[in-house]
Write a structure and sequence with these properties.
By secondary structure, the chain is an alpha/beta fold. It has helices at about 20-30, 50-60, 70-75, 85-90, 95-100, 140-150, 225-235, 240-250, and strands spanning about 5-10, 35-40, 105-110, 115, 130, 135-140, 155-160, 165-170, 175-180, 185-190, 195-200, 205-210, 215-225. Strands 3-4-7-9-8 form a five-stranded mixed sheet, with helices on one face. Strands 2-1-12-13 form a four-stranded mixed sheet. It has a two-stranded antiparallel ribbon with strand order 5-6.
Length: about 250
C-alpha cells in the first residue's frame, strides 16, 4: 500500500515455529497495512509447529535471513544439538532444510535498510543488549556505537533480532530496531554467561517501520493470540520450560 513518500515495513523475527502467533501477527499486519514484510531469522526451532511454519514461510517468500538457530538446526545432521533444534530438525522435510541453507546471514531488502540477526558480523551476540555477570541488560550507547562501527556504511534503518526484546535506538543517523519475538516471549540462555530474557507478557511481537520525509517512525506492537494452545503443545512434547515461557512471558 504505497502512499506518496511513505514506505511501511512490517518486521518479524524469532518465530520459533509458533504458528498461531505467526497467524495472529499476519492478521494484524493485514489490518494495519504494510508495503513489505521482512523476517530476521530463528524461524523454526522449538517444540511447536516447525514443518507447518516452514511451509507457510516458504509460500509467503518474504525477504528472510538465517539466525543462529538455522545454523544449529542444520548442524544436527552431523551431531546432536540443542533439544529445540533437534525437535525441529526431525520434523521438517529435506526440502525445508535445503531452503534453510539458501538463507543469507544479512540482507538489504532496500538500499538504506539492513537486516541482521544478532550483530552485523555474528548471529550469537545481541546488538542492543549486553550480557555480563549481572545477566542481560540494555547495552550502553558506547557499546552500541562500537558494534555499529564494524559496518563500512551505516544504513538508515538496521533491523535485528536474537534477543527477543523489542527496542528502538537512534544512533548517528541510524535507526536500530529489534521487533521482539513473534513466537517466544521469554527464555534463559548461557551464552556469554547465564541470563534470562523476559517480556512480562505472552503476546506475539513485531514492529512497523514507516519512512516519511527521510525519517523512520517505529511502532513496537504486541498482539494477543491463543498462547494457551502453544503452551499446551510445548508441554505435550515434554518442554515444560517452553510451556512456562509461552504462557507467562517470564523465565
Amino acid at each position: 500500500m504505497k502512499r506518496d513518500s511513505l514506505l511501511r515495513i512490517a518486521v518479524l523475527s524469532d518465530i520459533h515455529g509458533n504458528l498461531p502467533a505467526l497467524h495472529a501477527v499476519l492478521d494484524d499486519v493485514r489490518r494495519r497495512g504494510a508495503d513489505l514484510i521482512v523476517n530476521c531469522g530463528d524461524l523454526l526451532s522449538g517444540p511447536l509447529w516447525p514443518q507447518q511454519t516452514a511451509a507457510l514461510l516458504r509460500a509467503l517468500d518474504w525477504p528472510t535471513i538465517s539466525g543462529n538457530h538455522e545454523r544449529q538446526l542444520l548442524a544436527c545432521a552431523d551431531a546432536p544439538g540443542d533439544a529445540a533444534d533437534l525437535y525441529a530438525y526431525a520434523r521438517i522435510t529435506a526440502s525445508d532444510r535445503a531452503w534453510l541453507r539458501t538463507l543469507p546471514s544479512t540482507l538489504r531488502p532496500l538500499g538504506d535498510v539492513l537486516m541482521v540477526h544478532g550483530r552485523p558480523h555474528t548471529d550469537l551476540e545481541y546488538l542492543l543488549e549486553t550480557v555480563d555477570a549481572r545477566g542481560a541488560r540494555q547495552a550502553s550507547d558506547d557499546q552500541i556505537d562500537a558494534r555499529l562501527a564494524t559496518l563500512d556504511t551505516l544504513p538508515a534503518l538496521l533491523l535485528c533480532g536474537h534477543s527477543h526484546k523489542p527496542r528502538c535506538v537512534q544512533r548517528a543517523g541510524c535507526c536500530v530496531v529489534n521487533p521482539g519475538s513473534v513466537g517466544l516471549p521469554a527464555f534463559d540462555d548461557s551464552h556469554g554467561g547465564y541470563h534470562v530474557i523476559e517480556n512480562a507478557s505472552p503476546h506475539a511481537r513485531y514492529a512497523l517501520c514507516e519512512r516519511s520525509q527521510g525519517r523512520w517512525n517505529v511502532a513496537l506492537i504486541a498482539v494477543a493470540y491463543r498462547w494457551e494452545d502453544a503452551a499446551a503443545q510445548a508441554a505435550q512434547c515434554g518442554f515444560d520450560d517452553w510451556a512456562r515461557w509461552l504462557r507467562s512471558g517470564r523465565a
